[in-house]
Amino acid sequence: MNSLEHANWFMRALFFTLSAVIVASVLSAQRGRAMYIRRIPGLSAIEEAVGRATEMGKPIFFSPGLAGIGITTLQALSILAHIVRLAATHATRIIVGTADATVLPVAEEAVREAYDSAGRPELFRPEDVRFVSDSQFAYALGSVGLMSRDQTATNFFFGQFFAEALILTENGRSLGALQVAGTPDPVQIPFFIATCDYVVIGDEYYAASAYLTREPTQTGSLVGQDVVKAGLIALLIFGLGLVTYLAGHAPNGTVLSHLLTLLKAGS
Amino acid sequence: MWRSLQIGLSQLFSPAHSTGELVAYVVGALLASVLVLALLHKGLGWRGKRRLTMAVTFTAGLFFALEYFYPVRMVAGRQRNFLTDYIQPANEVLAIIMAFTVGLGIYSLIQVHGRNVLRQRRGWCNSLAFFLSMVVMFGFTLADNYIKVSDPPPAVLPYPKASFEILFNGLFMPLQSATFSLLAFYIASAAYRAFRVRTLEAGLMMAAAFVVMLGQVPIGAWLTHSLPVTGYHGIPAFFRLENLGEWVMTWLNTPAQRGITFGVAIGALAMSLRIWLSLERGTFFSEQS
Amino acid sequence: MEAAAPQGFRQRLQQLPRGFIYLLMALVVVWQLLFPLPMPISPSATTKGVYDAINKVPPGKLIVISADWDASTEAETGPQMTAIMHACFRAKKPFALLTLSPPAGAKLANDRAVAVAEQYGAKYGVNWCNWGYKYGYENIVMSLAKNIPATLKSDFHGDPISALPMMTGVKDYRDLGLVIEVTGLANVTEIWLGFLRGPFGTPLAAGYTAVMAPGYYPFVDSHQMAGMLVGAKGAAEMEALVEHPGDATRIMNVQSWAHLLIIALIVVGNLGYLLARGGGRR
Questions:
Q1: Taking the domain A41-214, which CATH number applies?
Q2: Which residue does chain A place closest to B176, by CA atoms?
Q3: Looking at residue C61, what is its pLDDT?
Q4: Does the interface ipTM go beyond 0.90?
């Protein structure tokens, strides 16, 4: 039975094992176990980037990407909230341009609550969290217009981006802004690396909340992810070796041939 | 009891048979929603709201997770369990809810640009142009939808349809293509500025990039066309740029892409678990104002 | 961030003005469009995979071409569509166009299909048809699994699907011989993989823009996809296979020299960097 539509026994076992490892790691961290996270330059640079905008007296631009509400965008908004809290302490203005109408109210609420939690609710301006366009290139050009008219000193690009990424970042660079980008999608990473000062790639992106907040739940989840990754690598190597051996040494009708069939059915 | 619940729900959510019934459903649903939201807002403190959010999040996630993991049986050649028939209606409900937010985007644009025009801020002409283009495009798109022409269309289209054709196919589409084509110029300047061979690894990456770039175009194939295609155990043929480029993409790029995809998928799993179980902390997830 | 003003030849090599680079690129593109230097094109394995998949479709089965692109990627996906349709008409395999997103794709693909069909004397509703734009992504794909006519109801022109002769007897995925996804959007192929290739084993092929294609090599390598067209190059290779050179072949002439220009610029920049570094050591 293929496991893309519904889970087979292997997917159930795998999912529950992986989830158990992650949840156990979270619980362990909540009980006080210290956990180490290596330095991620792109995330460490956020404070520097906000500081630059403050010194220059210019605003910050934040783009949460083009995707709708999903884990990628929610992570981007989580990073946005952190940036707003940092910027609020120095009364630095932040402009957020969204490309999806469903993201707009969530982004507005995230920014408002971030200003509240930083003790500066009066700094929140609703017109600074705005919908630009849901058309890819119209969004890119509209955002570039925002950056150039408001002369932003720092640009943040976190989320799901497509072909418009290079238009955003190359124009931002030509305007002299410091740029920090982060995306889990490998396709746009080369363009960000060529045009941004700091880039957060792959699963570093999902480590952002843990890295920025250092909260036990978050760091526990991050360590759990790494344990899961190591386990999957070991499983891959074991499975590869087993299938290779069985394919050559499993005559039909034997226990070994049934095991090979079972392993293939699990895929 | 499950069967009675199913019958009750199907009677409650049966399709409307007339316009009046449909209007009554819509108005009734709106009023009921407003009433429920008002009661929740008044009756629940921040802790209650948080618990309600956590319960709704968990239930919504549980529905989809349960449908995927619950054992299935084959019915008419399809994998099915007791929740499978409700997946599509659930997705349709989500799509309808998302459609409501389209108006939010338009409202935000009107608010921002309207303020620019009313207060005559710097660049207010651009905001006026926005309103003009939105109204004109909206009008001609409606006209294009509702004015029918014969098939094949006449040589001279009615004015609204012709205007739509000019604006959409003659202006909007070429503008999209033109903006995409800007990438060619940007990638040239970005590549020139960013790619410096500062280390051995950067040099190797540069060499691989050159091989792939030349392997993707006919001129690369022409540069190495003198290498024999067959013979010598295929070694010279391997070094033809188009073959070398293909080798880089399938033997170097593919494992790297798989590795990144695995890592991202695990990160997404962890984040999804945190959101589903409401372990995720952040401004809009759990903390009180 | 921008650097300070260049000083000396070595620095100037590393900091050519942006406008100069854009001008060079524009000159190269215009030159090759006006005075092309044609080069032979040899099809790659991934393109051959798509071509072979079309030819291997059993008689009586339908090909679905999902046109999920719009004007922004038309330079690559447009010629891909045209070349694929040429291959289908040459092999006398009936096909249906479908668009999941964006809506503009339905009309753009239809216009191309009308132009290509004319060259083969193909009739709408008999040799090809257009199911039009259907909103719903995975919902549409899941519904098509159960009942294609009931899901679609009408075609691109608003006529009933059941009235089309080629749709007689087409009920669900078992009546499909191949699905070809032509797109510039991410995450659409995964829908076809999850709800078509997985449950039913229906062959799947694709055409992508060059920038997103590297991410889909794993699917071709694992045989989840029969093949894929990679950008304008893939379209040109397909044009070579169907012996019908068109837009993509012309684009490849331009792309060849544009790539050479970019390589030359990178070399110039690195030359300046190495010279500056060497000069600094003395």
A1: 3.40.50
A2: A137
A3: 94
A4: no
